[in-house]
Design goal:
By secondary structure, this protein is α/β, with parallel strands linked by helices. It is about 40% helix and about 15% strand. Helix 1 (about 15-30) links the parallel strand 1 (about 5-10) and strand 2 (about 35-40). Helix 1 packs antiparallel against helix 5. The protein is globular.
Amino acid sequence: MTETVDILACGAHPDDIEIGMGGTIAAYVAKGARVAFLTLTKAELSSNGTVATRQEEAARAAAILGVHARYQLDFPDRGLRDIKDAQLSQIVKLVRALQPQLVFYPHHDRHPDHGHCGQMVKEAVFNAAIRRFATEGVSAHRVKASYAYFINGIPAPSFLTDVSAVYEQKKQALQAYESQFTPADGVSTPLTDAYIDTVIGRDRLLGKEAGVQFAEGFYSDRAPVVANLLEG
């Protein structure tokens, strides 16, 4: 039986979640939250590394961040635009089985798969709450909230999370993806051009905006409600 979690973080490719919100994951795990990762593709079209190597790196990165469980689907890399009902139902069924309070997905950016992944997850979260949307063995579940994280670029965030205390874990999780960021043999890609340094610079810049050392940004379709402004 699938164990329930507090947070489900979704990505199109292994390393998406770590780039966008690895610090936030580590911070919530440190507070006792149970977190699961869901990755839609195995990134089989990546210029460097192999599918097997990428899976090993993803497992190491998840362990560094303290992730409770990692789920890997087999949707086609660069094929997420052509969504099929059966594929969407796989995500719906997992959302219902895991019963997360929060779901995260990639914000749209220069890589089309990120936006398509986000759209699929948003549809799945919506369908998971519909009682008469059929999925065998699991019943409807309504997610408390869902938010988009940023991979490439710095769109205007709806809110930031302070990840200063756990930022070393995020860096270690990114460094686990040696085949993508520091390949010994391979071709030049945007990921091999000091990409981790770029991510660190972005998170440092967002942190400066919030008055902390490092922060990660998120976008919400609905304005989040702050329960107590005195708590900061």
